[in-house]
Task: inverse folding
């Protein structure tokens, strides 16, 4: 099928199938569909949209069909994205399973692991969280201490993870575990899939400055996981983690260009505009314009990196540039949003559901340049791997 | 729209890079400067550019051009930015050629475009009358007089003005609408004063005092001169942004090479995290500038109606990044970066001048706000 035919058919299908309630932006994080065993849909429209998209494999359009994907080519996947954007259709399902675990399983997983886990991710039946960071092992991730000791055909796991996003709402965790205590730092780590219902696994939310707690601490006390749940080979966890981090970075980056937040709209909401509809404060207007320029440059860069990747040039350490620029940009966008809203932006709670959302999102955005590798770590990577600057 | 070069573009870029590094490297520019060359560029080099078809890069094939498009013109300017090669390419092959192309009559095109292609003429494009770029502030008038026109006004810092044979002047007609007139520099009533600028280029200020012109001096081949003028300036902005990008890239490359070599405290200074983070930040900014410049150039070729915001944004970004890259370069070179002997200072000066030409980053931000409706 030609790309133009595909575009037309896709547009027609989306027009016929995307419920009206899914054609308006989500009202904050609570309105986004994450799926999972205990998921309660925010609306019928949200449920219908997920069912219809999952039916076609379009929650994960470029994954192979046998694993619940849509089997689309990269170009077709891009057309689908464009057409969804054109009609303001929401993503039917967001999840770490889609962004992070899925690509890692497709590359490193066994056939059994793919057949077991990928279709459930595609249909939003199982919600995943990521067990990487530990107290004392943040940016120096490879110094992690959670250990797994082999006992028959099971690993007995002990230790603690931190910053496990949505661990309290997740069904399974993909965790980095030190399984070979004597191996060099990067070589003794395994990538293990663990059911959160396993005895010995517990979680505790961490309250943030935003007043919410997407992050948790996760504890393993003699928790058991079968050896068959190791992805790739035992000891190969670091390679998989790095591969997956590049996908995580891409995920965080895509937040930076999501159109939901708009300081110009904020200025209008707060009545901070002149009779011509321009932002009344000329300095704020200039700041917003400079942000717009950087956002346009960033958007163009995402397209360029994609085009270069399609030509086989590889993204590699450029992901670090995108992560660094994208997250710094997103923080700036939130700061300007708050500035444009003035005192209205300071609201913490109110009558409406969205009251307090601006301040909470602003505070949440501070984590952008910390999670998934801090800005400083990204700059180190660029300096060392792209510019090949010497170490001290 | 593709963000990668096709084979033809790749070839053009590669041949430009090797030609300029052999024929017109920074040492050649220094020589022109030290000899106080009255044109500010090499006439021989301009002829060579014509032989290679560069001068006709935006000229239709009917008039002897290669008609390669704005993206290709940008690629050439990016390479000229890398070598700091001065030439009338931007004023003549980009701005004047585009003006004739979009607003010239058939007779004007037939008369002037082959001269541009052959490299036998240098044409300036005169828009600004004030220190800061502002194409809305035009007080020069071109009023009807009999079958002809009479031109009055002043223009400042017209690029390549010292060497120009003719200038295309942005003026207002008796209705106050913008118009374009092509004026021979030897015409009675035209006076010019060459101005040597910080980057060792030679623009000129022009005064037009009751300059009597034939009717065919008016470029009235466009049904919408205002729109045509905007397009000409956008093409110029995207192309000069490409030059600024080249300036930034080369300044960055020589700086990185230098900090890898230069030792202090017994180690290369590139091993210090204070410099590593700044270098990595700078590379990130250059990557952003590169993408948006490519986007603006391609958009001018493929969907020109969407080009104004991209041209303004690209000009702003490239201006800011080239100034940052060259000033950081001086800082990282340390004391020697302040000396005339090292090239980094020449890049710093060109970044400042190219950044000013056709609107700096503040101008671009204002334009983006306006075009975005806020």
Result:
């Amino acid at each position: 099928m030609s790309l133009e035919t595909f575009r037309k058919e896709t547009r027609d299908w989306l027009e016929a199938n995307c419920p009206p309630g899914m054609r308006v932006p989500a009202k904050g994080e609570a309105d986004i569909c994450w799926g999972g065993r205990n998921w309660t849909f925010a609306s019928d429209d949200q449920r219908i949209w997920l069912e219809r998209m999952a039916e076609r494999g379009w929650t994960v359009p470029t994954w192979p069909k046998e694993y619940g994907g849509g089997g689309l080519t990269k170009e077709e996947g891009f057309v689908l994205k464009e057409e969804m954007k054109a009609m303001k259709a929401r993503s039917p399902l967001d999840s770490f399973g889609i962004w992070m675990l899925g690509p890692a399983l497709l590359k490193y997983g066994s056939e059994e692991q793919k057949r077991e886990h990928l279709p459930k991710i595609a249909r939003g039946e199982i919600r995943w969280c990521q067990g990487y960071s530990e107290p004392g092992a943040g940016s120096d991730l490879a110094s992690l201490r959670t250990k797994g000791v082999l006992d028959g055909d099971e690993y007995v796991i002990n230790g603690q993870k931190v910053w496990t996003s949505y661990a309290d709402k997740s069904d399974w965790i993909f965790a980095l575990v030190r399984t070979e205590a004597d191996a060099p730092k990067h070589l003794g780590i395994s990538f293990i899939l663990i059911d959160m219902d396993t005895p010995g696994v517990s979680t505790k939310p961490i309250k943030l400055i935003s007043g919410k707690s997407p992050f948790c601490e996760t504890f393993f006390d003699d928790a058991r996981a079968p050896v068959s749940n190791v992805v790739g080979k035992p000891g190969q966890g670091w390679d998989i983690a790095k591969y997956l981090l590049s996908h995580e970075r891409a995920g965080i980056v895509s937040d930076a260009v999501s159109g939901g937040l708009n300081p110009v709209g904020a200025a209008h909401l707060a009545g901070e505009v002149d009779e011509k509809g321009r932002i009344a404060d000329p300095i704020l207007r200039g700041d917003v314009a400079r942000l717009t320029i950087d956002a346009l440059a960033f958007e163009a860069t995402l397209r360029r990196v994609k085009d270069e990747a399609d030509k086989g040039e590889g993204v590699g350490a450029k992901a670090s540039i995108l992560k660094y620029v994208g997250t710094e940009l997103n923080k700036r966008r939130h700061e300007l949003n708050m500035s444009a809203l003035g005192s209205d932006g300071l609201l913490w709670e109110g009558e409406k559901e969205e009251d307090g959302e601006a301040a909470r999102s602003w505070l949440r955005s501070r984590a952008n340049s910390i999670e998934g590798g801090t800005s400083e770590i990204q700059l180190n990577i660029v300096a060392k791997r792209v510019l090949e600057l010497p170490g001290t | 729209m593709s963000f990668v070069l096709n084979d033809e573009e790749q070839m053009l870029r590669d041949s430009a890079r090797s030609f300029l590094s052999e024929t017109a490297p920074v040492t050649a520019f220094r020589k022109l400067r030290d000899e106080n060359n009255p044109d500010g560029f090499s006439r021989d080099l301009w002829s060579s550019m014509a032989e290679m078809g560069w001068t006709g890069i935006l000229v239709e094939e009917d008039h002897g051009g290669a008609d390669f498009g704005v993206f290709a013109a940008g690629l050439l300017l990016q390479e000229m930015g890398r070598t700091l090669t001065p030439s009338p390419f931007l004023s003549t092959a980009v701005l004047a050629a585009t003006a004739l192309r979009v607003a010239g009559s058939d007779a004007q095109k037939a008369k002037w475009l082959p001269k541009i292609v052959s490299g036998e003429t240098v044409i300036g494009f005169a828009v600004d009358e004030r220190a800061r770029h502002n194409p809305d502030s035009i007080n020069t008038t071109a009023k009807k007089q009999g079958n002809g026109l009479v031109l009055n006004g002043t223009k400042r810092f017209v690029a390549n003005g010292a060497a120009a044979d003719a200038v295309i002047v942005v003026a207002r007609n008796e209705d106050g609408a913008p118009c374009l007139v092509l004026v021979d520099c030897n015409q009675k009533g035209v006076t010019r004063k060459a101005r040597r600028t910080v980057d060792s280029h030679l623009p000129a200020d022009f005064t037009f005092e009751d300059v009597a012109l034939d009717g065919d001096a008016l470029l009235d081949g466009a049904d919408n001169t205002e729109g045509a003028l905007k397009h000409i300036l956008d093409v110029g902005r995207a192309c000069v942004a490409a030059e600024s990008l080249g300036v930034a890239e080369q300044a960055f490359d020589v700086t990185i090479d230098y900090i890898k070599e230069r030792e202090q405290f017994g180690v290369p200074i590139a091993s210090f995290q204070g410099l590593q983070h700044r270098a990595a930040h700078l590379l990130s900014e250059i990557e952003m500038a590169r993408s948006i410049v490519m986007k603006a150039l391609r958009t001018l070729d493929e969907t020109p109606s969407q080009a104004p915001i991209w041209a303004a944004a690209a000009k702003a970004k490239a201006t800011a990044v080239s100034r940052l890259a060259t000033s950081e370069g001086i800082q990282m070179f340390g004391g020697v970066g302040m000396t005339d002997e090292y090239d980094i200072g020449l890049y710093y000066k060109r970044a400042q001048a190219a950044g000013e030409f056709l609107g700096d980053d503040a101008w671009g931000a204002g334009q983006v706000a306006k075009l975005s409706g806020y």
In short: Residues 282-310 of chain A form the longest helix (29 residues). Chain A has a mean pLDDT of 90.
